[in-house]
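Progress against Task 2.4 (sequence-to-structure conversion) is shown through the following example record, which the project officer requested during the mid-term review.
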Amino acid sequence: MENLPFYIDIVFILTTWLAVFLFYKATGNAKTSIIIISLWLAIQAIISLQQFYTETKTIPPRFLLLILPPLLLIATLFITKNGRRFIDNLNPKALTILHIVRIPVELVLLWLSSYKVVPELMTFEGRNFDIIAGLTAPFIFYFGFVKKTLSRKIVLLWNFICLALLINIVTIAVFSAPFSFQKFAFNQPNIAVLYFPFVWLPCCVVPLVLFSHLATIRQLLKYNSRNISAPGT
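Structure tokens generated for the chain above:
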């Protein structure tokens, strides 16, 4: 997408690495996590730069290679003993503040919409309200985990609401893409995520945001009789 101004790419690349860095901090600076994620991003960058994902008529869609591996990894972490141990040792404060990346992501989507590479309904001017999660994340971080004045139930409710916001925009994005099952935005389909660096949104940023919610929810439910900042602190 050569017609896009360079600053959109730069902002999104920096946003992706901010998400990776915050997740790295949530793991307690585990080098294995940063190595795995970095390799995954590099692989997807190389593949997408070859225009691999722009072929949308294949069955199954090549796009699945972006989203299935991280989803399978998340599922594996939740169903295995070692995976659950890893989740329970994550820092919930870092997992919570990670959601601030949803603010620049929404700005990038707005810019991409202005250049007709994603539909307007994928922005906060349309049906995407995900920016609310990013704007409220610092509040939950500070009052929930620093000041500890918010109850566990409120923090848990916030995670469920923001998880629903994430599912909403992911659903819109998938059904706005130019695949055989496209339902929305036929005049302005979601094509940006088929190109570098925006392939990093479905293959990395969204999975990290999803996993952060699921991991925090597990911790809050598991430690329901303790202080909400018990695990990972």
